[in-house]
Amino acid sequence: MDSVAQVLRNHPNAYVIGGGSNILLVHDLDRVVLINKLRGIEIKHLAHDKILVKAGAGVIWDDLVDFCVSKSYYGIENLTAIPGSVGAAPMQNIGAYGVELKDVFLELKAMHRETQEIHIFTTQDCQFGYRSSIFKNHLKDQYIITEVSLLLSKEKSLNTSYAPVNMAVEKLSKEASISDVRDIIRDIRWSKLPRPSKLGNAGSFFKNPIISKSLFSDIQKKYPSIPSYPALNGIKVPAGWLIEQAGWKGKKIGETGCHQKQSLVIVNYGEATGEEIYNHAVKVQASIESMFNIELEMEVNIVGGI
Ligand SMILES: Cc1cc2nc3c(=O)[nH]c(=O)nc-3n(C[C@H](O)[C@H](O)[C@H](O)COP(=O)(O)OP(=O)(O)OC[C@H]3O[C@@H](n4cnc5c(N)ncnc54)[C@H](O)[C@@H]3O)c2cc1C
Fold first, then answer.
1. Which one of 102, 121, 198, 294 counts the least CB within 10 Å of its CB?
2. Hey, what CATH topology would domain 2-157+165-171 get?
3. What is the residue with the minimal CA distance to atom 10 of ligand 1?
4. What are phi and psi of 210, to 5 degrees?
5. Domain 200-303: which CATH class?
6. What's the helix, strand, coil split of the chain in %, to 5?
7. Which residue's CA is the nearest one to ligand 1's atom 34?
8. pTM of the model
9. What is the four-CA torsion angle of 93, 9, 6, 142, rounded to 10 degrees?
10. CB under 6 Å to ligand 1: residues?
């Protein structure tokens, strides 16, 4: 931890990354880049079958999932195969297959960039939302997350509410175990998503927009099959569906484009620059705005100025 404080004293605006899986570098950075390698997993058995799992921010997220699955600590198995580090997970409240980090989150430790003091943030302090937290909003660029604590359970409890997961679980000839669910979700994910090691991508490029009921019903008149989910402040619409309707799915422009299986993912077919990928994303945004009057928000962190 002293080494992080030392770097911050000399380079208060150092850019911190974990796995670098959710950033798009648009231009070169003239800042020191700090790669988080704070390792270590600690566990503490609590009353009522609860387990406190503390992990260094530089632990690979999926290694933590595998560790917890191997010990039958329930809670994060649905978040399997999300690339990146533990420290980045609270940044956007990672989520998948019916579970979000906030569901199992207890607290985190973060170092204030200017004072190098360590502060503790509870769930409430973090102001988690859909792919968001206080660290992406009011406290953007003010803290470096150094440790994350989760509250998991030793009591069997699996979330198979997502239809394809449920179908795969039903097909098993035995009662599903925590590792069955982890494996099923991992297989579903990689059957739909391009692996960044084979085809460059940063996951979902845009957030699923939440729109007003009146805008939704206007769109529904023209597109009766529009999928939707209830959300806190309106109706959530899959951004991938909107992008597909606008004709971007699988369309390759130069060395970039929206992926043929998952249009929400913008891929680099080889030599595209960060700027070209960013420009593609802006074109997609503009076409969705003119077609549906919906502003798509980028989920990927744009780095290096635009
Ligand atoms: C194929 C693929 C699939 C994905 N699927 C999902 C998914 O299902 N659900 C989901 O939520 N996300 C998903 N993502 C996005 C990504 O995996 C997550 O955002 C992940 O948490 C990024 O971790 P990272 O360590 O790579 O972060 P980085 O890309 O290194 O950093 C992301 C942001 O967090 C900041 N940051 C990183 N570490 C710290 C720290 N310790 N303290 C302060 N700031 C920090 C960085 O400055 C940057 O702004 C996917 C990405 C890919 C490529």
1. 198
2. 3.30.465
3. 94
4. -105, 120
5. alpha beta
6. 30, 25, 45
7. 88
8. 0.95
9. -10
10. 15-23, 36, 57, 82-85, 87-89, 91-92, 94-96, 144-145, 193, 196, 201-203, 301
Strands 265-268 and 256-258: antiparallel
| Catalytic residue flag (residue 299) | yes
CA 182 to chain centre: 17
Ligand 1 closest atom vs CA 101: 11
Where along the chain do its domains lie? 2-157+165-171, 200-303
